[in-house]
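Form 7-S
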Amino acid sequence: MSTPHPSVSGILRYFEYSHLPPLLRGVSSRFHALAWALVEEEFLEGPELTVALRKLLESKDAAVRAALDKTPEEG
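Output:
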């Protein structure tokens, strides 16, 4: 794979998850894997890839917030 376009690299940094607590790390890591899988696809490039990653990031953020709302008893 070639070096990602700067707009793609800029979004990918928001998929990092190693700094998160275990519960949130588990949720976020799945989105990280999917984001990188999209970037590594040979036929996906251009503005629509950036849009796809941005929407995936929105979804990841919502999933992390949903996990934050979980009480310890539910975990």
